[in-house]
Amino acid sequence: MRIENITSSQNAKIKELLALQEKSKERRKKGLFVVEGRREIIHCVEAGYEPHTFFICRDIITEKEFDSILGAVEENFCGIMCQIIEIPQHLYDKVAYRGGTEGVIAEMHCKEMTLDSLKLKEKPLVVVLESVEKPGNLGAVLRSADASGVDAVIVCDPLTDMYNPNLIRSSIGAIFSVPVATATSEEAIEWLKSHRIKIYTAQLQDSEWYYDTDMKGGTAIVMGTEATGLTNVWRKAADAHIKIPMLGRLDSLNVSVSAAILMFEAVRQRNS
Asked: pTM, whole model, 2 decimals?
């Protein structure tokens, strides 16, 4: 692999790295996104994302730690050539999106997240999110999806860039460990019905308790935004409407908390 030393924040490659972190337009234009931290980068590589450039700070990352990343790259992309750029700590501190990222940042090639790329087992558990706007919420849902063994997460009509650094950070790498696809709501409904997956929409109106709903078969749990809930296209397509008991004065939970409750109810039913 090619190794280069950069010490100036005015270097073109440093400016490109910062642009990829800050602007979704640059990520789409270059077909690249940024991942920080050894664990997240290894998850990313193991999920089939090809590395483009590594930025490493030798004052922070050890040779052994970086070798573990290169080992994952070699195992998944035998013979691939990518660039390694060594930067001093004062420069790393400027370009690192968050603290505690172990002295390594990677530019990775984007992949298409399509419904056709999803591979399902029998009686899959799928989570569908419609028009989720906050990257942190989506990242938190992905963490719960990973923990509960969800087979896929479908993001419909997304209002956030799927390679947003805040999303990657909040998911702690689950964006790579959980199969994810983006689609329109209409495309997702057609896909779910073609795979005989029951559609259960989380909503307060005309609903039954979530624990009284059979989630042992192919199941899609569909969540909307906290502000407006689901659109009518999902309400009409649903096989059942489900709700979570609200015993306090407020009538809603954070979407990531609601999704986690429903995911683990499906796990409970399937393991009972």
From this structure: 0.89
